[in-house]
Amino acid sequence: MDNAQVSYRDIDIALLLADMARAIVDEPDAVTVTEEETADGTVLTLNVAENDMGMIIGKHGKIARAIRTVAKAAAKIADKKITVEIK
């Protein structure tokens, strides 16, 4: 059996974010994530269909907060600094 090392620094946080959003929304094909490098880190912008915004935000913003928490936890493991915006 091969004992290949898994590098957590190679986590694709944009893909993780898109997969989480696709699992929640009614129109998964409309989900996109764009990345922008800034001096402070990476800004990930999650775009969903207008009809799905309520599902992504959730009651009192609980779903959006949970999505950001998971993405930031993955970023911490990968030793990256990210900001998640939802549009």
What fraction of the residues are assigned to beta strands by DSSP? Answer: 15-25%
What is the averaged pLDDT score? 92
Name the CATH homologous superfamily: K homology (KH) domain
Return Rg in Å. Answer: 14 Å
Residue share in helix: 25-40%
The total strand number stands at 3
Supply the CATH class: Alpha Beta
- What would CATH call the architecture? 2-Layer Sandwich
Detail the poorly predicted runs: none
Overall shape: it is globular
| Element pattern in H and E | HEEHHE
Structural class of the secondary structure composition?
A: alpha+beta
Task: Explain the layout of strands and helices.
Blueprint: H1 13-24, E1 32-38, E2 41-47, H2 53-57, H3 62-77, E3 82-86
Parallel strand pairs: 2-3
Antiparallel strand pairs: 1-2
